[in-house]
UniProtKB/TrEMBL annotation:
ATP binds at K51, E99, Y100, A101, E149, N150, D163. It comes from the Eukaryota. One of its GO terms (molecular function) is protein serine/threonine kinase activity. The active site is at D145 (proton acceptor). This is CAMK family protein kinase. SMART domains: S_TKc. There is a cross-link at K147 (Glycyl lysine isopeptide (Lys-Gly) (interchain with G-Cter in SUMO2)). Keywords: ATP-binding, Kinase, Nucleotide-binding, Serine/threonine-protein kinase, Transferase. The keyword Amino-acid biosynthesis does not apply. Pfam families: Pkinase. The keyword Kinase applies.
């Protein structure tokens, strides 16, 4: 089992400050234009991660990027991607409330040389690939920043892809040329500005797998131009000690010609995983609605009020349902069985309250449940 790896330094710059429905406890991460804080939902008393962008430190184009990140995050609903709860802003800041992944990042695991069993490695790789399958085929999103810092683990050691700050929608017929992301994980076609698509994520995924297995970068140089030459020209060297099927998977993802590089279906169908075909992407159905209602009842919401707020698409109620769903799901899984990392279990979809409940059919289901609970 992966040990707890979440050991960020505590910062009390926002000590006891309340923002919206959240009380900020301590700093747990930072990006180029934001800080991320561990926070508590003041009504539910449950933890979230609160991403805060200072408006006076953002350019107009950066504000547009934040809005795009919110738009993309709020459209995603996948068990291997960090859950989006809500966004709001005040005079000084823009806030994004999202799932708190308590076991930290893959980067921390690698930097501290924490050993992993082969089955754990396979499960991590499979879960990342499953999330990419969802992004590429269901949402037509190119992440553009797949790297260990953006691979998180929740309380049950389940993989969660994070940070959609550089992500973009792939529109049919449009060619993406923007250079972005981390150079060590950038694909040859992105560096050259030749135009790229979903396979730029596959390259980054290949680099990540290589780093996970070999504990070093496949291409590295402190001089950025020399690094680019390595990415363009040098052959990938995978140690002979690496499992031959895994080595083939990595090589297929690090093919310099994007036309010959694996796509996400080829990745998931690879014999390394030992499964006959790509598993279908399933929607996240919520199986614990009664528990969600009970929890909301305990903090003062009647079933009628819950139904009213859901029908009106109230953002705060939507956020509370999402937060409760994630925590109830983890609590049930933790109490029923010990967590074992394996491919067959990692591909099961984590139960969650579908925010499709905000559409007409969903409202009907929610209201019917409210009436049954209230009887």
């Amino acid at each position: 089992m992966i040990q707890t790896i979440f050991l960020y330094e505590t910062s009390f710059l926002f000590k006891m400050q309340t923002c919206g429905n959240y009380q900020i406890m301590n700093k747990c991460g930072e990006g180029s234009s934001c800080n991320v804080y561990y926070a508590i939902h003041t009504t539910l008393k449950l933890p979230v991660a609160l991403k805060i962008f200072r408006k006076d430190e953002l350019t107009e184009s950066e504000i547009k990027m934040v809005k795009r990140e919110i738009e993309l995050m709020s459209s995603v609903d996948c068990s291997n991607i960090v859950s989006f709860y809500e966004d709001f802003e005040d005079e000084n800041n823009i806030y994004i409330s999202m799932e708190y992944a308590s076991k930290g990042t893959l980067a921390y695991l690698l930097e501290n040389n924490i050993p992993l069993l082969n089955d754990q490695i396979k499960s991590i790789i499979f879960q990342i690939a499953t999330a990419l399958k969802y992004l590429h085929t269901e949402k037509h999103i190119i992440h553009r920043d797949i790297k260990p810092e953006n691979i998180l683990f929740n309380q049950l050691n389940k993989v969660k892809i994070a940070d959609f700050g550089l992500s973009t929608l792939k529109v049919e017929g449009a060619i993406k040329r923007t250079r972005c992301g981390t150079p060590l994980f950038a694909s040859p076609e992105m560096i050259r500005g030749e135009g790229y698509s979903f396979k730029t994520d596959i390259w980054s995924f290949g680099v990540l797998m290589y780093v996970l297995i070999c504990r070093k970068y496949p291409f590295f140089n402190n001089n950025i131009q020399l690094l680019y030459h390595q990415i363009f020209d040098d052959e990938i060297k995978i140690p002979e000690t690496v499992d031959s099927l895994l080595a083939d998977l990595i090589s297929g993802c690090l093919c310099k010609d994007p036309n010959l590089r694996f796509d996400i279906d080829q990745v998931l169908n690879h014999p390394y995983f030992g499964i006959p075909k790509t598993l279908p992407m399933l929607p996240r159905y919520h199986k614990n609605q009664r528990a969600v209602y009970d929890s909301l009842n305990k903090v003062g919401f009647s079933n009628e009020k819950i139904c009213e707020l859901v029908m009106s698409k109230d953002q705060q109620m939507t956020a509370m349902i999402k937060i409760l769903t994630d925590h109830i799901g983890m609590r049930i899984k933790k109490s029923t069985s010990s967590y074992k990392i394996n491919v067959s279990r990692s591909c099961k979809i984590h139960s969650a309250f579908s925010i499709n409940a905000l559409n007409r059919d969903g409202v009907s289901r929610v209201c019917n449940l409210a009436r049954r609970v209230s009887k």
